[in-house]
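Feature request, filed as a ticket because there's no other form

It would be nice if the structure record came with a short human-readable summary line next to the tokens. Right now we just get the raw output. Example of a typical job, pasted below so the devs can see what we mean:
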Amino acid sequence: MNTPQTIAPSKATSGETLPNGPGAAAILAAGIGSAALGILALTNDAFPVINKLLIFYGPTGGLSGVSTMTVIIWLVAWFILARRWATATVPMARVNLISFALLAVGILLTFPPFMDLLQGK
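Raw output as currently delivered:
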């Protein structure tokens, strides 16, 4: 009869720490993607030329380009940051602060009253 074995979590030896770079890259990339969404939404709404450039699928209008470009920006940011920070230990407090600031930018720029205020409507 087989008895279940417990596996102890691996511990870093003295002086070694696990790199937090890949996790920090994901968090910061999410903030960058959020800000990109807000910026693209605002420019899509404010400038007819940008709106026409962002029409990737006719029935949805510029929203198709806004969402597609946001995902591309997020993935590129994540890829670049993850490669650069693959073995790094970065200050998470700073990464979190910047990410939340970028998230706030994204939320504000997609909030219609604030967006209208910026456009002077």
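Something like this underneath would help us a lot:
The chain has five helices and no strands.
Residues 21-46 form the longest helix (26 residues).
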